[in-house]
Structure to design on (574 residues):
C-alpha cells in the first residue's frame, strides 16, 4: 500500500466492499460503546484515513502481548486494519533485523515526526541506568525517551508496559517501571492485561485513527469502553454469587454446575476488563468460563496481591506470628498487672510490712 | 498499595494483633486479680456456687414479669440484634472465608439473600437501640462516649457490608476496603470499650448469680 493511499482505496483494491467496512465500523463502535451514528462516521473516517505510522517497542516482556494480538482468530477485518497500519518497527514481526531494523525505526521517526503512534509492550528497566534490558547497545530507557519524543501518542500494551507487570513484582531486581513513569508529556493510553484482548487493541487504534484523539479513559488511563466494568459485573456466573452459591474446589459439583469461583480466589470483582463480554479466541471462552478464577491480570501489581487462590475477603497477610506475639504480650501484661495488684493488696493488709 | 491492599494486609493484621492483646490482657488481669472473699454466712438453702452461677445466668436471660414493661423492649431488641450479628458474621460465605484464612476451619454458608435480609433487620435493631437510648432521659444521662462509639463501630460494618454486597454507590474494591477497615476499627476498639461485654458478660452474670444465690436473693 502506498503511503498516500487511503485505507478505503486499499480496501477496495483488495475487494473489501464498503458494506463490509460499514459492518466493521459498526462492530468497532459497538465495542467502544459509541452511539449508532458513530458507526458510519467511524467507517467513513477509516476509509478516508491514511495509514497510521506505528512504531512498536518491546522491552521487558514475554512476547505474550504480541502473541495475543497477532494470533487472534482467523483472518478477520481487524487483521486488515492492522494491515492498514504502517507498522514501521516491531522487533518480533518485522522481516529485517540488526542494524537494518534500527535504521527502519529511525527512518520512521524521521519521516513521521510528531505523527506516529508509539506502542510499547514490556516494562522499562531503570536500575543501574537501565542496563538490564537493552537492544542494539541502547537501554530500553534510552530507546523509549528517544522514540517517544516525536510520537503523537503512546499506547502501553499489556500490564508490564501499563503498570510494570511481572518485572515490577517484588523484589523488582531491574527497577522495572511502567511507561507512564518515564514519559509524562505525551498523550498515553494503557491497554492492560496479561495479555490484553486483541479487540481492545484494534478498537483503540481504530478510534485514534478515526477521531484523532484519545478515547475516554479511566483513572488508570485505560479506555472506559473496554475497562469500564469489572469482570464480575459482566460474568455469567454472577447470579450464583448473588445467591451465595460458590464452588468449593475446581472439580466439585458446584464447579461443574458453573457456580461462582469467589471462594477459589477469583479476582473478578476488583478487575476491570472486557474478558467476560468480548472473551477470547473469537468469543469462544474466557478464564472463568474455562473453570478458573480471574487472576486480576489487568490491574496494577496483580502479582503481589497474595495468592491467586486466596479469596478477596480473606486477609493477604498471614498474621499468625504477629497475633500470637500480641496475645502472649497481652497475657504477660495482664498477669503482671494482676501480680502488682496482689502485691499492693498484700502491702495494704500488712500495713506496708515486708513479708 | 491500594486502599484494598492496605485493608486486607497491614490494617487487618494490626487490628487482629491489637484485639488479641487487649482481650487477653483484660481477661487474664481480671481472672488473676485478688478476690474479695464473701464473709457472709451462706443461707441454709443456698445451692453450690456452680449451681448458683448457672441459675443466675439462666434467670437473667429473660426479664421477670415485674420488670417486663420496662425491660421487654431492650431484651427482645437485644436478642434480635445479637442473633442478627451472629447469623451475618458466621453465615455469609465471605465472612467464613475470612475466618478460614485465619483459622483454617470452614462450614456451609447461608444464602446471600437471607444474610442481606438479616443484616437489614439487624441494622434496624441497632437503629432502634440508639433511638431508645436517646429517647430515654435516664439512659441518656448515664450514656457516655463509650456507649455511642461502641454502637457506631458495631453499626459501620453492617452498613458497609450491605453496600459491598449490593455493589452500591462506589466500586466494589472501594466498598470492600471500607468494609474491612470498619471491621478493623471494631477489632481495635473491642477490648477497650463496652464491646468487651461479649466476653465479660459470662463473668459478670456468673459472679452475680453466685452472690445472689449465696445470700438467698430470689432471681
Amino acid at each position: 500500500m502506498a503511503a498516500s493511499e487511503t485505507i478505503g482505496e486499499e480496501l477496495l483494491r483488495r475487494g473489501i466492499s464498503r458494506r463490509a467496512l460499514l459492518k466493521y465500523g459498526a462492530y468497532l463502535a459497538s465495542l467502544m460503546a459509541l452511539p449508532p451514528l458513530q458507526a458510519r462516521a467511524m467507517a467513513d473516517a477509516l476509509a478516508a484515513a491514511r495509514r497510521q505510522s506505528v512504531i512498536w517497542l518491546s522491552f521487558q516482556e514475554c512476547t505474550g502481548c504480541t502473541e495475543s494480538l497477532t494470533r487472534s482468530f482467523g483472518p478477520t477485518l481487524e487483521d486488515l486494519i492492522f494491515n492498514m497500519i504502517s507498522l514501521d518497527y516491531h522487533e518480533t514481526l518485522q522481516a529485517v533485523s540488526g542494524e537494518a531494523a534500527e535504521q527502519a525505526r529511525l527512518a520512521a521517526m524521521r519521516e513521521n515526526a510528531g505523527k506516529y503512534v508509539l506502542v510499547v509492550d514490556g516494562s522499562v528497566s531503570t536500575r543501574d541506568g537501565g542496563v538490564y534490558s537493552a537492544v542494539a547497545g541502547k537501554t530500553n530507557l534510552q530507546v523509549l525517551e528517544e522514540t517517544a519524543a516525536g510520537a503523537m501518542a503512546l499506547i502501553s500494551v499489556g500490564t508490564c508496559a501499563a503498570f510494570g507487570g511481572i518485572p515490577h513484582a517484588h523484589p523488582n531486581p531491574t527497577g522495572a517501571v511502567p511507561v507512564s513513569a518515564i514519559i509524562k508529556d505525551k498523550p498515553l493510553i494503557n491497554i492492560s492485561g496479561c495479555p490484553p484482548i486483541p479487540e481492545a487493541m484494534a478498537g483503540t487504534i481504530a478510534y485514534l485513527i478515526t477521531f484523532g484523539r484519545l478515547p475516554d479513559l479511566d483513572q488508570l488511563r485505560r479506555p472506559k469502553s473496554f475497562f469500564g466494568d469489572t469482570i464480575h459485573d459482566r460474568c455469567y456466573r454472577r447470579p450464583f454469587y448473588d445467591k451465595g452459591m460458590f464452588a468449593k474446589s475446581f472439580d466439585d459439583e458446584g464447579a461443574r454446575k458453573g457456580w461462582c469461583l469467589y471462594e477459589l480466589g477469583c479476582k473478578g470483582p476488583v478487575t476491570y476488563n472486557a474478558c467476560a463480554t468480548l472473551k477470547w479466541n473469537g468469543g469462544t471462552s474466557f478464564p472463568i468460563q474455562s473453570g478458573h478464577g480471574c487472576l486480576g491480570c489487568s490491574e496494577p501489581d496483580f502479582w503481589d496481591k497474595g495468592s491467586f487462590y486466596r479469596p478477596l475477603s480473606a486477609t493477604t497477610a498471614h498474621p499468625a506470628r504477629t497475633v500470637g506475639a500480641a496475645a502472649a504480650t497481652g497475657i504477660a501484661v495482664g498477669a503482671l498487672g494482676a501480680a502488682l495488684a496482689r502485691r499492693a493488696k498484700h502491702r495494704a493488709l500488712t500495713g506496708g510490712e515486708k513479708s | 498499595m491500594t486502599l484494598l491492599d492496605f485493608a486486607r494486609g497491614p490494617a487487618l493484621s494490626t487490628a487482629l494483633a491489637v484485639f488479641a492483646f487487649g482481650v487477653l490482657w483484660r481477661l487474664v488481669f481480671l481472672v488473676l486479680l485478688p478476690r474479695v472473699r464473701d464473709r457472709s454466712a451462706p443461707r441454709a438453702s443456698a445451692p453450690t456456687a456452680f449451681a448458683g452461677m448457672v441459675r443466675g445466668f439462666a434467670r437473667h436471660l429473660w426479664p421477670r414479669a415485674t420488670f417486663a414493661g420496662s425491660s421487654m423492649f431492650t431484651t427482645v431488641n437485644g436478642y434480635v440484634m445479637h442473633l442478627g450479628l451472629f447469623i451475618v458474621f458466621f453465615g455469609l460465605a465471605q465472612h467464613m472465608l475470612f475466618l478460614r484464612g485465619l483459622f483454617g476451619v470452614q462450614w456451609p454458608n447461608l444464602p446471600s439473600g437471607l444474610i442481606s435480609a438479616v443484616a437489614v433487620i439487624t441494622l434496624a435493631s441497632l437503629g432502634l437501640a440508639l433511638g431508645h437510648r436517646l429517647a430515654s432521659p435516664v439512659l441518656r444521662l448515664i450514656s457516655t462516649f463509650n456507649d455511642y462509639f461502641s454502637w457506631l463501630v458495631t453499626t459501620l460494618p453492617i452498613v458497609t457490608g450491605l453496600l459491598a454486597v449490593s455493589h452500591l454507590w462506589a466500586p466494589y474494591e472501594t466498598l470492600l476496603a471500607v468494609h474491612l477497615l470498619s471491621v478493623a476499627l471494631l477489632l481495635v476498639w473491642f477490648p477497650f470499650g463496652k464491646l468487651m461485654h461479649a466476653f465479660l458478660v459470662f463473668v459478670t452474670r456468673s459472679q452475680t448469680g453466685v452472690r445472689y444465690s449465696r445470700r438467698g436473693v430470689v432471681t
Chain B is about 75% helix and 0% strand. Chain B has a mean pLDDT of 92. Residues 104 and 154 of chain B are 25 Å apart (CA to CA). Chain B has one domain: 3-18+69-214.
